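SAMPLE LOG
Freezer: B-3
Tube label: C17
Construct: single chain, 261 aa
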Amino acid sequence: MQGERSEGDEEIARRCLLDGDPGRLRVGLCGFTISIVDYPLRFPVVEVQQTFYDPPADDTLRKWRANAPSLEFTIKVWQLVTHAATSPTYRRMKSAVHEGVDYGGFKDSVAVMEGWRRTLECANLLSATGTLFQCPASFGPDPQNVRNMRAFFERIDRPRARLLWEPRGARWVSERALAVALCRELDLVHVVDPFVTPPERGRPAYWRLHGPGAPRNSYTDSHLRELCVMAREVEADSVYVMFNNLPRVGDATRFLRIAAG
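STRUCTURE (predicted):
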């Protein structure tokens, strides 16, 4: 486990407001980098990663919910929905991959719909407030991919939780206008790293911080002060700031202190 609990972190988390609006700024980690017992004392929200690789058993999810009743959960959608079977992320999946079945890319296939069905079950067990569709860089802004997305979100059962979409790769950065338009059309939250893709003002904000230049890098205090300014300027009802770089515990803790100050 990374990081040690600093005295006062829980109080800092409570005081970490934007413009005096309690709960508007939600700071958390992508993954349980610290124990689930200590986590709610440090941060108010966690993004579950296991549901992307291989969803845990129901009993495990119920245990998480029971052990952290005050914690807000968001979850990553099972990779069957977004990633092709050739993705290296499938190496961490215990379930068998079947030949002749289309995986990923929001395709109209048995595998994709099974991935979504199981994701919904996990979201319900955790009372998740958001489900994150994280796409690989290979899923670019191509016409067929856009058609697949539109058809998928038209046919699925939508949960009460917000649907979050993170397009990855340089092509989507350059096609930001298309990504924003799709999110408005399909009622999705556009997930970005605000240091890479400018966030949209006045819309719900869910930011994933992947590290300055590389996942192993830590954000400087100057970076974190800039991040605080961006969070204030986005003028959204809620701003989720989720740290996904490797030194995320320390960076998220420093960000809480800077925002509270």
